Amino acid sequence: MLSFLARRLLQLVPTLFFVSVIIFSLQQLLPGDPALVMAGEERDPEVIEQIRKQYRLDQPLPVQYVYWVKGVLSGDLGESMRIKVKVRDLVAEKFPVTLQLAVMAMVIALSIGITAGVLAAVLRDSVWDYAANVFALWGRSTPTFWLGIMLIFLFSVELGWLPASGYVRPSEDFWGSIASTIMPAFVLGNVGAAVLMRHTRGAMLDALQSDYVRTARAKGLFERTVVLKHAMRNALTPVITLGALELGELLSGAVLTEQIFSIPGFGKLIVDSVFNRDYAVVQGVVLVTATVYIALNLIADIAYVVVNPRLRS
After folding, report:
1. What are phi and psi of 184, to 5 degrees?
2. Does residue 26 lie within any of the structural domains?
3. Residue 249's closest CA among 203, 296, 180, 198?
4. Count of structural domains, the chain
5. Most exposed among 9, 52, 137, 313, judged by the fewest C-beta atoms under 10 Å?
6. 16 band by pLDDT with thresholds 50, 70 and 90
7. How far is CA 122 from CA 130, 193, 215, 302, in A?
C-alpha cells in the first residue's frame, strides 16, 4: 500500500509540471494587454511602461514562467492586477464557497444516483427500472439554467421558502447557509445523479451476474446481504472514479449556476478575471483547481484498494 502511494505521488510531480506549463502558456493566448487595462482610459506611456516592469510583462515568457513558478512554490500565487489583493487571499475567500456547494451537490448526486442505480439493477425491467432510466435521461437533458430559474420561481417566488439568490457563510448562520445553497446544489447534483445512476446500474448488473454472487446465493445468504455486501461493494469500483471526476468538475467552478444564484465562488471569480485580463488570478485559480482535481484522482485510486481487496496485492 505504501509503495503504491509513493509511486502515485511521484507521478504527480511531472503531471503538475506539465499542467503549470499549459496553464501559463494558454493564459498568454487571451486577447488584450493587461497593462493597457490597468493603465485606465488615459493610457499614459510612462504608466504603461511602469506597469510592465512591475509585473515583469516586459520579460520573455520563459523568464515570466520561472518567476511565477518560484512564487507558487513559496506559496505566493501573485497579486490581482485589478484590485491589488493577493491571489491566495482571493482563493482562500472563494474556495470554501465553491467547496460547500460542490460537497452538497455531490451528496445529493450520490444519494440519488447510487440508490436509483442499485434499485434499477436489482429490479431490472420493472417500473422502478424504467422510472430510474427516465430520471437519468431527464437529468442529462435538462439545462441547468432552466432548472435553476424554475426552482427560483417555485420555491422563492411562489412558496417563499428559500432565498432566490445570495450566499450566507456557515459561520454566520448555518441553516441560512444551507437554505441559500440547497437550490444551486440540487441543480448541480441533478446532473451528477443522472450520470452516477447509469454507471451504477450497469456495474450492478455485471456484478449480479458474476460467479461470486451466484455462489453467495447458493450458500443461502439473504438477498439483501448478497446485494449490499457482495455485489454493490464490487460494483462501486468504477463509480468511485466517476464520483471523483464529478466532484472535480464541481470544484472547477459551476460558472452558470453560480451566476444564476449569485454565489460568490470560483466560477464568478474566474469569469470576472478573464474579462478584466487579470492574469495572476486566472492562473492561480486554474492551478488550484487542477491540483485539487489531480488530488481527487489520487484519492480515488486509494479508494480502489480499500474497496476492492484484490487490488491490494
Report:
1. -60, -35
2. no
3. 296
4. 1
5. 313
6. confident
7. 12, 18, 17, 28
How far, in Å, CA of 195 to CA of 203, rounded? 12
**What is the pLDDT averaged over residues 205-232?**
77
Q: First CA to last CA across the chain, in angstroms?
A: 8
The DSSP code for 124 is T
- In 3-state terms, the chain is what percent helix, strand and coil (to 5)? 75, 0, 20
Cell numbers for 134, please give them.
427516465
43 falls within a domain = no
Helix, strand or coil, per DSSP, at residue 204: helix
Burial of 246 from C-beta contacts in 10 A (0-12 / 13-18 / 19+): buried
Q: According to the per-residue pLDDT averaged within each range, which of 80-84, 181-185, 208-212, 222-226 is highest?
A: 181-185
Contact 177, 168 (CB under 8 A): yes
Helix crossing, 87-122 with 279-307: angle to 10°? Answer: 40
Q: Could you identify the residue written with the cell 452558470? A: 256
Among the listed residues 114, 110, 145, 117, the one whose alpha carbon sits nearest the alpha carbon of residue 131: 117
Q: What is the pLDDT of residues 168-183, one digit of tens each?
A: 888 888 888 888 888 8
In the DSSP assignment, the letter for residue 169 is -
> How distant, in Å, are the alpha carbons of 37, 64, 261 from that of 274?
12, 19, 20
What are residue 60's phi and psi, to 5 degrees? -60, 155
pLDDT of 31: 63
Please report whether residue 159 resides in a domain.
Answer: yes
Specify the CATH number for the domain of residue 188. Answer: 1.10.3720.10
For residue 36, tell me if it sits in a domain. Answer: no
Range of the domain at 183: 94-279
Angle at 86 between CA 80 and CA 92, to 5 degrees: 115
Q: How far apart are CA 124 and CA 133, in angstroms?
A: 11
48, 39 Cβ separation under 8 angstroms:
yes
50-98 pLDDT, tens digit each? 777 777 777 777 887 888 888 788 877 777 777 778 888 888 888 888 8
Residue 39 banded pLDDT, cuts 50, 70, 90? low
